[in-house]
């Protein structure tokens, strides 16, 4: 047997080496070593997939709907999505001007969009704090993330965005309701952003994965505000995983200007091929499932988070999603990372803010957890934030 001289490390690309392992995953790995952890870190719903959707997916398997689908998606799901988009934002998709594609999760849609639009050095404006994949996907596709500081209220505004636009700016990533803050932008704020971006030739990618998880104080006319009601010259990205508890099914969709969607569909042919076939068939009836009671139960959890933590620190009130982005007082800990490490000593898992931000002053708490778990964790965190857990 000859000596192997193959240096795998020397073969790895700068692209892969430039991306760090997700800080969220590191917390998951840390939690796996704890006995009976109080896990407030997981960004996925804690309710099961509605039975009618499970049954429909099982039926799809039994009906042998297990092969490749059209790249754009199965006809019954595309028709359901088209009706939903028309009823919600008024677009007619697909049409002469607008396209529609089913994607492998919203992250798949975001990746395809960036692959289709970015050249090396193009700039993408990313709100800070941000969902973790935004800067990673920007770098992966050759772009450069330009961070828009939204502290302390976490509201992305045209006033904050405008100074960041340059000749290289291609995209603005908009996430409302937001991960990690839960902030929901108003129609007025969205209108200002739309007018700015259209006047400067910047494409908005509106990541609305939490659109159904919008609470009463974030809704306008009973709906989550969306820039897609103001213009069809943007990319609308939505999904099924958070709303229906099927995050592992990897199901999303994107709609917008047809030239862009055509390129995204072409790229999907050579990457994802198609979204999971059985999940597409199983979710064709998803929009008929009433999820309002579950969303209201999460709103009640949000209220319990605020009741526990508002008296001891600053918490920007989330009006959607299922997160709170909680400030760590400097008198309590020198950084959010240090606070999170101490919380882990008390079995509580939360995510340090520097995973989502250029700052390390907050932590993300997910209240997508059983009530008893949430209450136990809140009691410990409130004690720590009020100085009951001195630095040792």
Question: What are its keywords?
Answer:
alpha/beta; Aspartate Aminotransferase, domain 2; 392 residues; Aspartate Aminotransferase, domain 1; globular; 12 strands; 3-stranded antiparallel sheet
Q: How would you describe the overall organization of this protein?
A:
39% of the residues lie in helices and 15% in strands. The protein has 392 residues and is an alpha/beta fold. It has two domains: 13-42 and 291-388, Aspartate Aminotransferase, domain 1; 51-288, Type I PLP-dependent aspartate aminotransferase-like (Major domain) (Aspartate Aminotransferase, domain 2, 3-Layer(aba) Sandwich). The strands form three sheets. The protein has a seven-stranded mixed sheet, sandwiched between helices. Helix 7 (133-140) links the parallel strand 3 and strand 4. The longest helix is centred in the C-terminal third of the chain and has 18 residues, at 292-309. The radius of gyration is 21 Å and the shape is globular. The model has no long low-confidence stretch (mean pLDDT 94).
Layout of helices and strands:
Layout: H1 8-11, H2 14-17, H3 23-31, E1 38-39, H4 51-62, H5 75-89, E2 98-103, H6 105-117, E3 123-128, H7 133-140, E4 144-149, H8 158-161, E5 169-175, H9 187-200, E6 203-207, E7 235-239, H10 241-244, E8 252-257, H11 258-269, H12 277-282, H13 292-309, E9 323-327, H14 336-345, E10 348-349, E11 351-352, E12 362-366, H15 371-388
Parallel strand pairs: 1-10, 3-4, 3-5, 5-6, 6-7
Antiparallel strand pairs: 2-8, 7-8, 9-12, 11-12
- Report the mean per-residue pLDDT as an integer: 94
Which stretches are poorly predicted, pLDDT < 50 over at least 5 residues?
Answer: none
Distance between the termini: 55 Å
**CATH level-3 fold name of the largest domain:** Aspartate Aminotransferase, domain 2
Q: What is the number of independent domains? A: 2
The whole-angstrom Rg is 21 Å
Which architecture name of the largest domain does CATH use? Answer: 3-Layer(aba) Sandwich
Topology as a string of helices (H) and strands (E): HHHEHHEHEHEHEHEEHEHHHEHEEEH
Question: Helix/strand-derived class?
Answer: alpha/beta
Strand order of the largest sheet: 2-8-7-6-5-3-4
Q: Could you say which overall geometry the principal axes of the C-alpha atoms support?
A: globular
CATH superfamily of the largest domain: Type I PLP-dependent aspartate aminotransferase-like (Major domain)
**Helicity level, as a percent range?**
25-40%
Number of helices: 15
Q: Biggest β-sheet: count, sense, barrel?
A: 7 strands, mixed
The level-1 CATH class of the largest domain: Alpha Beta
Strand content: 5-15%
Strand tally is 12
């Amino acid at each position: 047997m000859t000596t192997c001289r193959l240096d795998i490390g020397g073969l790895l690309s700068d692209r892969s080496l430039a991306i760090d392992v997700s800080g969220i995953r590191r917390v998951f790995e840390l939690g796996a070593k704890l006995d009976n952890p109080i896990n407030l870190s997981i960004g996925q719903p804690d309710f099961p997939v509605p039975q009618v959707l499970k049954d429909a997916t099982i039926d799809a398997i039994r009906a042998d709907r297990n092969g490749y689908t059209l790249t754009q998606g199965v006809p019954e799901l595309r028709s359901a999505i088209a009706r939903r988009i028309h009823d919600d934002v008024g677009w007619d998709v697909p049409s002469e001007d607008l396209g529609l594609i089913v994607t492998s999760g919203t992250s798949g849609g975001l990746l395809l969009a960036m692959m289709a639009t970015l050249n090396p050095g193009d700039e993408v404006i990313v709100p800070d704090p941000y969902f973790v994949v935004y800067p990673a996907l920007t770098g992966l596709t050759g772009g450069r993330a330009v961070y828009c500081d939204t502290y302390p209220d976490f509201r992305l505004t045209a006033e904050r965005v405008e100074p960041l636009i340059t000749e290289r700016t291609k995209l603005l990533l908009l996430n409302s309701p937001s991960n990690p803050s839960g902030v929901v932008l108003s129609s007025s704020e969205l209108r200002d952003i739309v007018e700015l971006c259209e006047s400067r030739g910047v494409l908005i990618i509106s990541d609305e994965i939490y659109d159904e998880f919008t609470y009463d104080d974030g809704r306008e006319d009973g709906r989550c505000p969306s820039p897609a009601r103001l213009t069809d010259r943007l990319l609308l990205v939505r999904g099924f995983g958070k709303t229906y508890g099927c995050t592992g099914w990897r199901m999303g969709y994107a709609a917008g200007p047809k030239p862009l969607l055509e390129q995204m569909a072409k790229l999907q042919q050579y990457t994802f091929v198609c979204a999971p076939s059985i999940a597409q068939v199983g979710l064709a009836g998803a929009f008929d499932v009433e999820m309002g009671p579950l969303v209201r139960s999460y709103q009640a959890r949000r209220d319990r988070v605020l009741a526990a933590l508002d008296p001891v620190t600053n918490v920007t009130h989330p009006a959607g999603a299922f997160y709170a982005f909680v400030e760590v007082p400097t008198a309590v800990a020198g950084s959010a990372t240090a606070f999170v490490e101490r919380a882990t000593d008390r079995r509580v898992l939360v995510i340090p803010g520097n995973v989502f931000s250029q700052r390390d002053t907050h932590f993300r708490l997910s209240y997508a957890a059983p009530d008893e778990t949430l209450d136990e964790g809140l009691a410990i965190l409130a004690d720590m934030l009020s100085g009951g857990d001195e630095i040792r």
